[in-house]
Amino acid sequence: MTDVIKLLPDHVANQIAAGEVVQRPASVVKELLENAIDAKATHITLVIKDAGKTLIQVIDDGVGMSSTDARLCLERHATSKITKAEDLFSLITKGFRGEALASVAAIAHLEVQTRTEEDDVGTKIQVEGSEVKNQESVVTARGTIIRVKNLFYNIPARRNFLKSDAVERRHIIDEFQRVALAHPNVAFTFLDNDSTLFSLPISKLRERIVNVFGSKLKERLVPVAEETDIVRVSGFVQKPEFARKNRNEQFFFVNDRYIKSSYLHHAVVAAFEGLLKSDTQPGYFLFLNIDPKSIDINIHPTKTEIKFDDEHAIYTLLRATIKHSLGQFSITPALDFSLDSEMATPYDYDKKKPTQPTIEVDRDFNPFKEEAKRMQQFRSGGGFIPKETPAWEALYTGIDKESTTTFESATFSDKEDFEKKRTIEGWLDSDFKAENVIGTLFEDINAKPSSNAFQLQRKYLVTSIKSGVVIIHQNLAHQRVLYEELLRNISVKEGVSQQLLFPLSLSFSPQDIALLANLREQLNTIGFVIEKLEEETMEISGIPVHISESSVQEIMEQLLDDMKQDVPGESFSQFDVLAKSLAKTMAIKVGMVLNQEEQEHLINQLFACKEPTLSPTNRKLLITLDIDYLDNKFI
Ligand code: ADP
Ligand code: MG
What we know:
Layout: H1 10-21, H2 25-38, E1 43-49, E2 55-60, H3 67-72, H4 100-107, E3 109-115, E4 122-128, E5 131-138, E6 143-149, H5 156-161, H6 165-182, E7 187-192, E8 195-200, H7 205-213, E9 221-227, E10 231-238, E11 250-254, E12 257-259, H8 262-271, E13 284-290, E14 295-296, E15 307-308, H9 311-335, H10 369-379, H11 391-395, H12 415-433, E16 454-456, E17 460-465, E18 468-473, H13 474-492, E19 497-507, H14 510-518, H15 520-525, E20 529-534, E21 537-544, H16 552-564, H17 574-586, H18 596-607, E22 622-626, H19 627-633
Parallel strand pairs: 1-7, 11-13
Antiparallel strand pairs: 1-2, 2-6, 3-4, 3-6, 4-5, 7-8, 9-10, 10-13, 11-12, 14-15, 16-17, 17-18, 18-22, 19-21, 20-21
The structure holds adenosine-5'-diphosphate (ADP) and magnesium ion.
Magnesium ion (MG) binds at residues 31, 34-35, 95, 100.
């Protein structure tokens, strides 16, 4: 047999290696920003066009490169940062593999323009797919400009794999924020399609956090600081009352490098024990400084995971330190009002004179008006105005109301019955988590539900159909109804809006405003009238008829969270995310009592849907128990 093994040509090897380093535009941004930091820049500008797909440019005022280095930096394993393997154990730079620029050069059009302090003229090199096309001397400022154009131009499969601009931009913003937070001593500017997304002056960490996430963070930060022989902990946690449902504002930095660690995250959450509402997450910006010898950052190609020699000790210390800070924070105002005005009592109660309480009577108050409004909205096909279940209602759940049959209305005479009920509930819950869907129900034309529905546990609607019993999850079902309706509204552009008496002013971080700006037109088509959308403010003068003014902030926040989520493999369109997100916030919730009419209306609406068995996020929303199945149970 003839010899078959060949050495891969360099450009092929580079392309393969690039796959590991460069997954998407954000990976390029990360590498270029880190190179600029390593080059000791004091001001870094990031410019992107079309979410980095067309252009990523990083300009720094760092040390620059000589013309030989400029040529060499594009070679694989070309690095100025380590010379021997032992150097790996005392790393203080971000990069060390010497792979990034070579990888990017293999899969994009790359241009390096650079000059050192000593040189009078700089160097400009243009590379396409690892091939140097041009090298010339240029007049340029000290520092380096790297331009990356047409990423993945020679790997169409990778290019097609990229997500929508909104998602790719979000990833870039994430990377940018991580680097910017880790280096408040460096000024950053971020231009996105010619508009300034961030402009961050050199500042202290607290201001940097506020400049990145918006001024609402100002009042939320609690400082954390502790130093021991093995580690120095510093940074901020957010006050527990501002905990959120998502994990967007959680950052760990080890030696100024962003890392992910579920173990350390757990330590933080443990420190917040008892202070958080369920389902919420604390926000934190925590910096650990540790001897590079006692960590291993070389275990993950994208270097966001890290191994500590003494993980357990760090865990314990972190938890104790944060606990201490939170404790201190809550007693600080009582001990010393002058310590930190941001932490003191917000209002000047000292100088306030007591006033006689006055009683105002609303003569127009009609306790049934709210209910009538709710019903009218529901009938018109929209969502309920979310209503808290009044406490008195709980007192009456034992009495069978004329129009409502709920599972609770049955009285449980003893513990055994109660357990039975619990088991049914648990069984239903677990069944709704199962993946499989019984999809045969609606193929049967006669499978219309009968009108004797009842509500179970304020969560499920139970009704009978010709072939048996159907159990519907009220929240997921309503999401489906709203989702299809919203999609219809968006596609025919017929969203109706209600004018607000006073425009609503909401505040968001600048990049959230930028995200919302991308959705402006779609929001408009479903009935949001947006007057202003700039800096940190969104001003709305009209909202869709089905939603209440008080839920707009929540709707927008949910929408932003959903936009930031990257669900791999799922078809992604902004319309779709918008409709899903709104449906989720507007839908009637578990725990809401529905009367007979409301139950039937929801069931009818659901059956009129194109896809009545799945929620917008593909969760099963109903199960059927057919007679055969039941018969079998009684054998
Ligand atoms: P690494 O950062 O792992 O060393 P890179 O491929 O990112 O590998 O960069 C290769 C080398 O090019 C770096 O070691 C550095 O010497 C030089 N370099 C890259 N970017 C810059 C920059 N912005 N300013 C100065 N030198 C740079
Ligand atoms: Mg690098």
